[in-house]
Design goal:
3-stranded antiparallel sheet; 7-stranded mixed sheet; 294 residues; Double-stranded beta-helix; alpha+beta; 15 strands
Length: 294
Protein backbone atom coordinates (compact mmCIF):
# COMPACT_ATOMS: atom_id res chain seq x y z
CA UNK A 1 0.00 0.00 0.00
CA UNK A 2 2.84 2.41 0.78
CA UNK A 3 3.95 2.27 -2.88
CA UNK A 4 0.65 3.83 -3.99
CA UNK A 5 0.66 6.66 -1.43
CA UNK A 6 0.15 9.95 -3.29
CA UNK A 7 1.24 13.02 -1.31
CA UNK A 8 0.49 16.34 -3.03
CA UNK A 9 1.53 19.53 -1.21
CA UNK A 10 -1.00 22.36 -1.23
CA UNK A 11 -0.12 25.88 -2.35
CA UNK A 12 1.24 27.02 1.01
CA UNK A 13 4.23 26.47 3.29
CA UNK A 14 2.23 23.76 5.10
CA UNK A 15 -0.17 20.99 4.23
CA UNK A 16 -0.57 18.15 1.77
CA UNK A 17 -3.42 16.06 0.35
CA UNK A 18 -2.86 12.33 0.69
CA UNK A 19 -4.55 9.92 -1.70
CA UNK A 20 -4.25 6.23 -2.39
CA UNK A 21 -4.68 5.19 1.22
CA UNK A 22 -7.44 3.79 3.41
CA UNK A 23 -6.95 4.94 6.99
CA UNK A 24 -8.80 1.95 8.42
CA UNK A 25 -6.28 -0.55 7.01
CA UNK A 26 -2.76 0.83 7.34
CA UNK A 27 0.21 -1.48 7.19
CA UNK A 28 3.40 -0.52 9.04
CA UNK A 29 5.17 0.87 5.98
CA UNK A 30 2.24 3.11 5.07
CA UNK A 31 1.91 4.34 8.63
CA UNK A 32 5.59 5.28 8.70
CA UNK A 33 5.16 7.17 5.43
CA UNK A 34 2.13 9.02 6.81
CA UNK A 35 3.91 9.94 10.03
CA UNK A 36 6.96 11.22 8.16
CA UNK A 37 4.71 13.29 5.87
CA UNK A 38 2.89 14.69 8.91
CA UNK A 39 6.16 15.88 10.46
CA UNK A 40 7.17 17.45 7.14
CA UNK A 41 3.89 19.12 6.15
CA UNK A 42 2.24 19.48 9.62
CA UNK A 43 -1.22 19.08 8.03
CA UNK A 44 -2.42 16.04 6.08
CA UNK A 45 -5.79 15.90 4.31
CA UNK A 46 -7.32 12.52 3.47
CA UNK A 47 -10.35 12.83 1.16
CA UNK A 48 -13.24 10.36 1.03
CA UNK A 49 -12.48 8.39 4.22
CA UNK A 50 -15.90 8.48 5.95
CA UNK A 51 -14.48 7.24 9.26
CA UNK A 52 -16.80 5.99 11.96
CA UNK A 53 -16.23 7.41 15.43
CA UNK A 54 -14.32 4.29 16.62
CA UNK A 55 -12.24 4.32 13.42
CA UNK A 56 -11.35 7.98 13.92
CA UNK A 57 -10.32 7.31 17.51
CA UNK A 58 -8.19 4.35 16.42
CA UNK A 59 -6.41 6.45 13.79
CA UNK A 60 -5.80 9.30 16.24
CA UNK A 61 -4.32 6.88 18.78
CA UNK A 62 -1.58 5.99 16.29
CA UNK A 63 -0.12 9.42 17.03
CA UNK A 64 -0.17 8.96 20.80
CA UNK A 65 -2.43 9.05 23.83
CA UNK A 66 -5.57 11.13 23.47
CA UNK A 67 -6.50 14.16 25.53
CA UNK A 68 -10.05 13.96 24.13
CA UNK A 69 -11.23 10.83 22.33
CA UNK A 70 -14.19 12.43 20.57
CA UNK A 71 -15.97 15.78 20.62
CA UNK A 72 -18.72 16.89 18.26
CA UNK A 73 -17.58 20.39 17.36
CA UNK A 74 -20.91 21.29 15.81
CA UNK A 75 -23.94 23.52 16.14
CA UNK A 76 -26.21 20.47 16.20
CA UNK A 77 -27.16 18.60 19.37
CA UNK A 78 -26.86 14.80 19.55
CA UNK A 79 -30.65 14.55 19.09
CA UNK A 80 -30.42 16.37 15.76
CA UNK A 81 -31.88 19.70 16.88
CA UNK A 82 -29.97 22.95 16.42
CA UNK A 83 -28.09 24.42 19.36
CA UNK A 84 -29.42 27.76 20.60
CA UNK A 85 -27.95 30.55 22.70
CA UNK A 86 -30.74 30.08 25.21
CA UNK A 87 -29.81 26.46 25.92
CA UNK A 88 -26.19 26.15 24.72
CA UNK A 89 -24.70 29.55 25.46
CA UNK A 90 -21.20 28.45 26.50
CA UNK A 91 -20.88 25.79 23.81
CA UNK A 92 -21.84 28.21 21.01
CA UNK A 93 -19.62 30.85 22.59
CA UNK A 94 -16.65 28.51 22.24
CA UNK A 95 -17.60 27.73 18.63
CA UNK A 96 -17.63 31.45 17.86
CA UNK A 97 -14.28 31.79 19.60
CA UNK A 98 -12.91 29.26 17.13
CA UNK A 99 -13.32 31.88 14.40
CA UNK A 100 -10.03 33.38 15.65
CA UNK A 101 -6.58 31.85 15.24
CA UNK A 102 -5.71 29.52 18.10
CA UNK A 103 -3.80 26.42 19.13
CA UNK A 104 -5.53 23.68 21.10
CA UNK A 105 -5.03 23.41 24.87
CA UNK A 106 -2.35 26.08 25.16
CA UNK A 107 -4.37 27.31 28.17
CA UNK A 108 -4.00 23.95 29.92
CA UNK A 109 -0.92 22.67 31.77
CA UNK A 110 -0.20 20.38 28.80
CA UNK A 111 -0.30 21.76 25.25
CA UNK A 112 -1.93 19.32 22.80
CA UNK A 113 0.25 17.45 20.32
CA UNK A 114 -2.22 17.41 17.47
CA UNK A 115 -5.73 16.57 16.33
CA UNK A 116 -7.71 14.43 13.94
CA UNK A 117 -10.76 16.19 12.51
CA UNK A 118 -13.48 14.64 10.32
CA UNK A 119 -16.35 16.21 8.40
CA UNK A 120 -19.85 14.73 8.52
CA UNK A 121 -22.13 17.65 7.51
CA UNK A 122 -20.78 20.85 5.96
CA UNK A 123 -22.64 24.10 5.16
CA UNK A 124 -23.06 25.13 1.50
CA UNK A 125 -21.19 28.38 2.18
CA UNK A 126 -18.46 29.24 4.69
CA UNK A 127 -17.22 26.97 7.45
CA UNK A 128 -13.81 26.31 5.91
CA UNK A 129 -10.96 25.56 8.31
CA UNK A 130 -7.77 27.56 8.00
CA UNK A 131 -4.31 26.65 9.29
CA UNK A 132 -1.30 28.94 9.72
CA UNK A 133 2.32 27.77 9.68
CA UNK A 134 4.17 29.10 12.71
CA UNK A 135 7.43 27.46 11.54
CA UNK A 136 7.47 29.58 8.40
CA UNK A 137 6.35 32.60 10.43
CA UNK A 138 9.38 32.27 12.71
CA UNK A 139 11.66 31.81 9.70
CA UNK A 140 10.27 35.00 8.14
CA UNK A 141 11.18 37.19 11.13
CA UNK A 142 14.21 39.43 10.83
CA UNK A 143 17.13 38.70 13.14
CA UNK A 144 16.29 41.49 15.58
CA UNK A 145 12.73 40.24 16.04
CA UNK A 146 13.91 36.65 16.40
CA UNK A 147 16.23 37.68 19.22
CA UNK A 148 13.39 39.60 20.86
CA UNK A 149 10.77 36.85 20.76
CA UNK A 150 13.25 34.20 21.93
CA UNK A 151 13.31 35.90 25.32
CA UNK A 152 9.56 36.45 25.69
CA UNK A 153 6.71 34.40 27.06
CA UNK A 154 2.95 34.89 27.52
CA UNK A 155 0.14 33.57 29.64
CA UNK A 156 -2.65 31.60 27.98
CA UNK A 157 -6.26 31.68 29.14
CA UNK A 158 -9.54 30.76 27.45
CA UNK A 159 -11.39 32.87 30.01
CA UNK A 160 -9.39 35.90 28.88
CA UNK A 161 -9.84 35.17 25.15
CA UNK A 162 -13.59 34.54 25.47
CA UNK A 163 -14.07 37.65 27.59
CA UNK A 164 -12.49 39.72 24.81
CA UNK A 165 -15.34 38.51 22.59
CA UNK A 166 -17.91 39.56 25.17
CA UNK A 167 -18.49 35.98 26.33
CA UNK A 168 -18.13 35.36 30.04
CA UNK A 169 -17.97 31.61 30.50
CA UNK A 170 -20.40 30.32 33.09
CA UNK A 171 -17.62 27.93 34.08
CA UNK A 172 -14.85 29.69 35.95
CA UNK A 173 -11.21 28.71 36.55
CA UNK A 174 -12.21 26.73 39.64
CA UNK A 175 -15.11 24.86 38.02
CA UNK A 176 -14.34 21.15 38.15
CA UNK A 177 -13.64 19.23 34.96
CA UNK A 178 -16.50 16.84 35.77
CA UNK A 179 -18.93 19.76 35.93
CA UNK A 180 -17.60 21.20 32.67
CA UNK A 181 -18.18 17.85 30.98
CA UNK A 182 -21.76 17.76 32.29
CA UNK A 183 -22.25 21.27 30.85
CA UNK A 184 -21.09 20.06 27.42
CA UNK A 185 -17.82 22.00 27.42
CA UNK A 186 -14.57 20.75 25.96
CA UNK A 187 -12.29 23.72 26.44
CA UNK A 188 -11.93 25.23 29.92
CA UNK A 189 -9.63 23.91 32.58
CA UNK A 190 -9.05 24.20 36.28
CA UNK A 191 -6.26 26.28 37.76
CA UNK A 192 -4.27 29.43 36.90
CA UNK A 193 -3.23 30.34 33.34
CA UNK A 194 -0.01 28.64 32.20
CA UNK A 195 3.02 30.58 30.99
CA UNK A 196 4.52 29.57 27.62
CA UNK A 197 7.44 30.86 25.58
CA UNK A 198 6.68 32.70 22.33
CA UNK A 199 9.15 30.41 20.58
CA UNK A 200 8.78 26.65 20.61
CA UNK A 201 11.29 24.02 19.47
CA UNK A 202 9.55 21.05 17.89
CA UNK A 203 10.52 17.93 19.85
CA UNK A 204 10.71 15.70 16.75
CA UNK A 205 11.94 17.95 13.94
CA UNK A 206 13.96 20.50 15.94
CA UNK A 207 12.39 23.39 13.97
CA UNK A 208 11.55 26.60 15.77
CA UNK A 209 8.07 28.09 15.53
CA UNK A 210 6.07 30.89 17.10
CA UNK A 211 3.60 29.92 19.81
CA UNK A 212 0.80 32.45 19.55
CA UNK A 213 -3.00 32.34 19.24
CA UNK A 214 -6.00 34.09 20.69
CA UNK A 215 -5.46 32.62 24.17
CA UNK A 216 -2.04 34.30 24.58
CA UNK A 217 -1.88 37.53 26.60
CA UNK A 218 0.07 39.46 29.24
CA UNK A 219 3.74 39.11 28.30
CA UNK A 220 5.74 39.42 31.55
CA UNK A 221 7.75 42.65 31.59
CA UNK A 222 5.34 44.50 29.28
CA UNK A 223 2.43 46.75 30.13
CA UNK A 224 -0.84 44.98 29.27
CA UNK A 225 -1.65 47.38 26.42
CA UNK A 226 1.86 47.01 24.96
CA UNK A 227 1.64 43.22 25.26
CA UNK A 228 -1.72 43.16 23.49
CA UNK A 229 -0.45 45.35 20.66
CA UNK A 230 2.75 43.32 20.27
CA UNK A 231 0.91 39.98 20.13
CA UNK A 232 -1.69 41.38 17.71
CA UNK A 233 0.97 42.70 15.32
CA UNK A 234 2.95 39.45 15.53
CA UNK A 235 -0.19 37.40 14.81
CA UNK A 236 -1.11 39.55 11.83
CA UNK A 237 2.39 39.09 10.42
CA UNK A 238 2.45 35.35 11.10
CA UNK A 239 -0.96 34.51 9.62
CA UNK A 240 -0.39 35.73 6.06
CA UNK A 241 -0.02 33.87 2.76
CA UNK A 242 1.89 31.81 1.82
CA UNK A 243 1.83 30.65 5.45
CA UNK A 244 -1.93 29.97 5.48
CA UNK A 245 -4.15 27.35 3.89
CA UNK A 246 -7.97 27.14 3.93
CA UNK A 247 -9.72 23.83 3.33
CA UNK A 248 -13.13 23.52 1.68
CA UNK A 249 -14.63 20.54 3.44
CA UNK A 250 -16.41 17.63 1.76
CA UNK A 251 -18.28 15.10 3.91
CA UNK A 252 -15.95 12.18 4.58
CA UNK A 253 -12.76 14.25 4.68
CA UNK A 254 -10.34 13.43 7.49
CA UNK A 255 -7.39 15.62 8.48
CA UNK A 256 -4.62 15.43 11.04
CA UNK A 257 -2.56 18.45 12.06
CA UNK A 258 0.45 19.12 14.24
CA UNK A 259 -0.75 21.43 16.98
CA UNK A 260 2.83 22.06 18.09
CA UNK A 261 3.61 24.28 15.09
CA UNK A 262 0.27 25.34 13.53
CA UNK A 263 -2.57 27.67 14.42
CA UNK A 264 -6.08 27.02 13.10
CA UNK A 265 -9.44 28.74 12.83
CA UNK A 266 -12.86 28.26 11.23
CA UNK A 267 -14.33 30.66 8.67
CA UNK A 268 -17.74 32.15 9.57
CA UNK A 269 -20.90 30.45 8.38
CA UNK A 270 -24.63 30.82 8.96
CA UNK A 271 -24.94 29.13 12.34
CA UNK A 272 -28.60 28.33 11.69
CA UNK A 273 -27.23 25.89 9.07
CA UNK A 274 -25.82 22.56 10.34
CA UNK A 275 -22.07 21.99 10.48
CA UNK A 276 -21.14 18.68 12.13
CA UNK A 277 -17.45 17.97 12.67
CA UNK A 278 -15.74 15.39 14.89
CA UNK A 279 -12.58 16.19 16.81
CA UNK A 280 -10.09 13.82 18.47
CA UNK A 281 -7.30 15.61 20.35
CA UNK A 282 -3.86 14.04 20.73
CA UNK A 283 -2.28 14.63 24.13
CA UNK A 284 1.03 16.43 24.41
CA UNK A 285 4.17 14.82 25.78
CA UNK A 286 4.94 16.27 29.23
CA UNK A 287 8.64 16.37 28.32
CA UNK A 288 8.01 18.91 25.57
CA UNK A 289 4.47 20.31 25.94
CA UNK A 290 4.36 21.27 29.63
CA UNK A 291 4.03 24.95 30.49
CA UNK A 292 7.00 26.95 31.75
CA UNK A 293 5.01 27.78 34.87
CA UNK A 294 1.61 26.81 36.16
Amino acid sequence: MARTLDIEPVDATLGAVVRGVTLTSLDDATWRAIHAAWLEHALLIFPDQHLTRPQQIAFAKRFGDLELEMVDVSNVRPDGTMRTDEQDRDFLGLLRGNLDWHTDSSFKPLHAKGAVFCAEVVPPEGGQTGWADMRAAYDALDEAMRRKVEGLSAYHSIYHSQAKLGHQLNAGPTTTLDQQKKDGLYGPNEGPPPLRGLVKVHPETGRRSLLLGRHAYNIPGMAPEDSERFLKDLMEFACRPPRTYYHDWTPGDAVVWDNRCLLHRVEPWDMTVPRIMWHSRIAGDPASEAALAY
